[in-house]
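in:
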């Protein structure tokens, strides 16, 4: 009977520990060098744009703007994805475009209005 309770206790603790180490299903954090699919990067770009708005890093006017283009570019550490959002309604002409950069595997690198 003691062995049974030890087994059940071990199984219970083990099942809880897996949830502690598991990442969210859509948290856009990837491991390895496998290139991300374009659709995955676009989904992550929309999520990251929402986070930037929520943190006050970019204007809330970007919330409804859809991506204009997505391309791969040569970045400082290899290939990167560049997603461009464009909002010509902004009065500040230096902030008409929003650029989001992701590693080739889909991890967020940076966001800016210059594209560099």
């Amino acid at each position: 009977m003691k062995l049974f309770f030890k087994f059940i206790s071990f199984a219970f603790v083990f099942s809880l520990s897996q949830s502690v180490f598991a990442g969210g299903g859509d948290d856009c954090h990837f491991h390895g060098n496998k290139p991300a699919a374009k659709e995955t990067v676009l989904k992550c770009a929309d999520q990251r744009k929402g986070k930037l708005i929520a943190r006050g890093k970019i204007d809330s006017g970007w919330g409804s703007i859809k991506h204009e283009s997505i391309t791969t570019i040569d970045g400082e550490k290899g290939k990167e994805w560049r997603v461009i959002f464009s909002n010509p309604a902004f009065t500040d002409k230096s902030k008409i475009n929003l650029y989001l950069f992701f590693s080739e595997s889909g991890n967020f690198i940076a966001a800016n209005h210059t594209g560099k």
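note: The chain has one domain: 24-112.
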